[in-house]
From TrEMBL:
This is Flagellar export apparatus protein FliQ. One of its GO terms (cellular component) is plasma membrane. Pfam families: Bac_export_3. It comes from Ketobacter alkanivorans. One of its GO terms (biological process) is protein secretion. InterPro entries: Bac_export_3 (IPR002191).
Amino acid sequence: MSPEVVSDLMREGLFIAMILVSVIIIPSLCVGLVVSVFQAATQINEQTLSFLPRLLITLATLVVLGPWLGGLVHDFAVKLIIDMPTMLG
């Protein structure tokens, strides 16, 4: 296997991992920011007020975008398995 092939596989794998993480984290960060502004404006310092909405948004994001994210991982794995003989030999 040449270094270029390994480099391309690592690049594509890291790109997919970055997509997976960012799709899940960005909505949670936005909700956390909105809740933090609300807490600062009202001076409510309840820990569950910041945790529960982020948890619910993260779960909702996984439910809505989970099939697409799973498809990305599935397509990458299928590509690796199909191209394995040409990469090794």
